[in-house]
Design goal:
The complex is a heterodimer.
Chain A: E1 5-7, E2 10-13, E3 19-24, E4 31-37, E5 44-50, E6 53-57, E7 64-68, E8 74-78, E9 87-94, E10 102-103, E11 107-111
Parallel strand pairs in A: 2-11
Antiparallel strand pairs in A: 1-3, 3-8, 4-5, 4-9, 5-6, 7-8, 9-10, 9-11
Chain B: E1 4-5, E2 10-14, E3 19-21, E4 24-25, E5 32-39, E6 46-52, E7 59-61, E8 64-69, E9 74-79, E10 88-96, E11 105-106, E12 110-115
Parallel strand pairs in B: 2-12
Antiparallel strand pairs in B: 1-4, 3-9, 5-6, 5-10, 7-8, 8-9, 10-11, 10-12
The chains are: A mainly beta, B mainly beta.
Chain lengths: ~110, ~120
Amino acid sequence: DAGVTQSPTHLIKTRGQQVTLRCSPKSGHDTVSWYQQALGQGPQFIFQYYEEEERQRGNFPDRFSGHQFPNYSSELNVNALLLGDSALYLCASSKTATYEQYFGPGTRLTVT
Amino acid sequence: AQKVTQAQTEISVVEKEDVTLDCVYETRDTTYYLFWYKQPPSGELVFLIRRNSFDEQNEISGRYSWNFQKSTSSFNFTITASQVVDSAVYFCALSEGGSTLGRLYFGRGTQLTVWP
């Protein structure tokens, strides 16, 4: 049983560019959440998707957007990248919002 | 205000010592969930335990044990007879009920180093 997978593993972008990160949830899971983890900090909630809709959102600007597909996989898009967007981006999936969330290995984004 | 506080930034112990990681949370909800995750150097967060607010029983799983006390809003984690492989960053997290159900609020983490 495959766990949560994310791609790519690492990414280097230039300030002002746009980036798309991808996530496939654990089999049987229908809810996907995205988190940003800056170096030395705990993960911060970006948003959560369920039934292809954004169900809730954390305190992140509109430059951060997402999508969930019918197969429950998800994308995180970040426009107009800033140096401060450099972080580990983690995807988590769960069966419902109440169950434990399982995390993927993350995508390390570096903005230069 | 921080919903989850992990006051210990770093802890170092020698192998076979017992170690307790502290977690204090803050919420007004009566229904909520508490979690512990482990993050080894590889970066992937590994789920360890989930407790709901109605279940205050302590839990033991092998060398791991958890002490949940609503009276002090604490959910502490103890590793007995620590091993080098326990070295990692440990995060405590809270999920509240209502409209934010499923959103995890993380503490800043505690870096545990176990020396041989």
